[in-house]
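seq as requested:
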Amino acid sequence: MHGSRNVRAFVAACLAATCAFPLGCKKKPVDPGPDLQIVGESTRIRLEDPVPASTPWLVDGKVILVAARGETLGIQVLHRVPGPVSLTITATATLVRGYSVDSYPVKRASTSMYGGGRTGTFADGLMRANPPLTNPAYFEIDVFSRAEPGEYKGELAVGDRKLPVSLTVTTAKLPATPPRVWAYDDPRELAWMAGAPPDTKATPEPTLVERACAETFAENGVALMPDLHIGWWPARKPPENGLKDLPVVIPADPATAGDVVKAWIAATKDTGLVPFAIPIDEPGTPEARAKVVELAKVVRAAGGGPTTFRFALTDDPRPEYGDLIDLYISLRTPRSHGGKQWTYNGAPPRAGSMVLDAETPGARTWGWIAHLWNIPVWYVWDALYWHDRHNRKGAPLPGKPLEVGIDPTSFEKDEDHGNLDGVLALPGAQGCRKTLRLASIRRGQQDRVLLEQASACDAAKTKAIAEKMIPTALGDAPAKGDPPWPTDESAWELARRELIAIAASCTK
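struct tokens:
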């Protein structure tokens, strides 16, 4: 599963050849690009591809980093010569963490349900390492809120090669914000990976491993939480992180749902939390929608409503629902919704995809789209889908286990299959092992805060930058087609630096 084979796969691009004429021609090797390059955490590295000729992170042999105070930067170091990679920065109010990166073979591209995908070998799994030995190597640089603005020096060492580093910390400052991405998880996945029997049930109180996983996600701007059963309360009461929406479970049976709704309203009274439930997912038939209406009436009669208990639905507003739905969660949310709807997951051209073989920049787009489309919370199904439990075809739980180093297909139903669909963290010794795709979500959420900071300084200029990057998305984009945003992360990095400059212009 580890990335020692990365170098061999990475240089495979050198063996590719083109020929303009059928007779008498010589093979022309594809230019593999420079031996050393730097990209951000949102670049979806396929090791067989040529390295970008230039990026904003590496200019004239110098590593260039720009950050707001309170921001975390992530960079991937692409290098062909095997050897240790280290990054040092002299600023005292920073922390540098190194990671080895494992890469996984995609033999069947994700299908159109995910916006399509690509075959090849993709870098993704992260493991703390000092120094990392893999290609790519990955580093995160935390710039603390207390950091003094200015330019700080450092060094990137790749084998015997040493490059100067410049980190510019600006006066812009990112405030702490509540998580605006909620990722569902099934606690049984952690138990099954630890060898628990198939009939294992989640415990009312989260295990230490579950808590550690939740902390990993929180560090990346994501609230990881299962749908809560009333019997789990208050043992699974979420941490005080500012997120007020509480995912819960109610029966789909109208005869018993009302009592559970009343119990949740009583349990969360005066807590500042508002429970919500999605008891019927994606109702695709008139019969299913009729059941939605019946159940929603029960919830409302039990005291449910926008401020007490929200009946949520993964569908678009329809006349037959009337005013019974308190929260719509739709892939087709229009920009005109006025902040009343959420969205979930994503696939181009409506939103970037979180699958392994997605196009750059993947889920980084979520932060930009959420800013422009005023999405309060982005819902992720699932985050730890380590067994394909929904497509067992009569087989017992837990379903087909994920074998990421052999075949990263995690979800397969009929003609649809996705590579690491629903998998933002991988099984690890401590429960959850984070990925570049999880770091990409963090990057997008930090971008969202930068957009808000910059908008407060110059709303018109910030809007122009955002709409240039995301000309259309969600319900205002077509169902199929190419991503309408740049698929070269260099464009996103340059736009981010513009936002920092705007935000810094009115901060001290």
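Residues 1-24 have pLDDT under 50 and may be disordered.
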